[in-house]
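Changelog note: in this version the structure field was regenerated for every chain. One regenerated record is shown below for reference.
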Amino acid sequence: MSAARVHEIRDVPADARLPTEFGEFRIRVFHEEETGLDHVALILGDMGGPDPVLVRVHSECLTGDAFASLRCDCGAQLENAMKTIQDKGWGCLVYLRQEGRGIGLHAKIQAYNLQDRGVDTLEANLMLGHPADARDYGIASEILSTVGIERVNLMTNNPDKVAQLSEHGINVENRVPLVVGVGEGNLDYLATKASRMGHQISDESLGRDL
């Protein structure tokens, strides 16, 4: 698990209606002073409860989210989360600028090159001198608290995300699996996340033995 950091965010006066192909959200922008990055919350409905809020904390993936890359499941997870929140009629998606599991786009593409040569996604990060997963979800906790969310049903397969949000005061009442976008191009990637990084992705979901 990543070491906890204290985050200072500025709730930028940027709040607007955002119609999407999945339905209409409110979009709010949060500026992180430490990194200079802008993060986003897509909000649907009243965040005050009484039930836990359906939440997805999604880390930026340019290749998957914007270019529909099949090397990962990120784009499919983003779309599925937005659709699921709309279907429920209430929820929040936090979009964090943590490209490449926190190592940045340049290093991520370097890691892709190493993967093309036969190493797995974890080994590639380590070979480049980066952690297997450098993401810090403290900023997500600050954003959720700012919009009034304390109790969540969290859409994720990653137990570290659950642990970090809990550590920062967010009550994760349920983990909602989000296994989507599985295909031939990302089976090894997903299998590595399951077998070596602790992500809760079953053999059955991948359609093969790990």
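Spot check on this record: The mean pLDDT is 88. The first helix runs from residue 62 to 66.
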